[in-house]
Amino acid sequence: MFSRRADLYKGFINEQNEVVYPLHNYYFNPKTGQTTYENATSLKTYRLEWKTDETTKQKFLFIYRSK
Asked: What is the phi/psi pair of residue 9, to 5°?
């Protein structure tokens, strides 16, 4: 069976705050990665945190893998 993939960044956030996968239009909860579609696998989720260097005022994005 041939399986195609699409980049999630090409998707969008719908009115219910779900991430919509662009290839199959599956919906995912961005906090949990869970979906209601039987044929879809849940997504890995990551915690994001912005931090500011107080000296330079430059902002950095830290990405932490969720447990």
From this structure: -65, -15
Rounded CA-CA distance 42/30 in Å is: 10
Residue 61 makes CB contacts below 8 A (sequence gap 6+) with 48, 49, 50
> What does each C-alpha distance from 9 to 13, 16, 20, 38 come to in angstroms?
10, 18, 10, 22
pLDDT digits (tens, 9 = 90+) for 42-60: 888 888 899 999 999 999 9
- List pLDDT tens digits, range 27-37: 999 889 899 88
